[in-house]
């Protein structure tokens, strides 16, 4: 039996202390940054030392580069998708 193919679920950010925050699509990373800065102990700029990425369908944090590979293999990219190595939420929803 074949294992279901991974997909990209939502935007996420891994903080320096390894805590991962995420918001469901169609949120973008700027929405997540605002949400983190308003509702957590992290002060602005919350991106200092944080890694922007995504959660995959296994609920694993993946970097923008890893997410681009997953989204490409799962045919999730929109026609306006970036041509670089990094995935942006605008490329998938």
Show the helix and strand layout:
Elements: E1 8-14, E2 20-24, H1 29-39, E3 51-56, E4 61-63, H2 64-73
Antiparallel strand pairs: 1-2, 1-3, 3-4
Describe the 3D structure:
By secondary structure, the chain is α+β, with helices and mostly antiparallel strands. It has one domain. Helix content is 23%, strand content 23%. The chain has helices at residues 29-39, 64-73, and strands at 8-14, 20-24, 51-56, 61-63. It has a four-stranded antiparallel β-sheet with strand order 2-1-3-4, with helices on one face. Strand 3 (51-56) and strand 4 form a beta hairpin. The radius of gyration is 13 Å and the shape is globular.
Summarize the structure.
This protein is of the alpha+beta class. 23% of the residues lie in helices and 23% in strands.
């Amino acid at each position: 039996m074949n294992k279901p193919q991974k997909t990209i679920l939502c935007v996420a950010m891994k903080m320096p202390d390894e805590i991962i925050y995420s918001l469901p699509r169609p949120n973008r990373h700027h929405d997540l940054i605002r949400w983190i800065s308003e509702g957590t102990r992290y002060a602005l700029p919350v991106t200092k030392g944080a890694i922007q990425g995504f959660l995959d369908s296994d609920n694993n944090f993946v970097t923008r580069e890893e997410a681009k590979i997953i989204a490409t293999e799962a045919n999730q990219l929109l026609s306006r998708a970036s041509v670089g190595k990094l995935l942006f939420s605008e490329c998938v929803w």
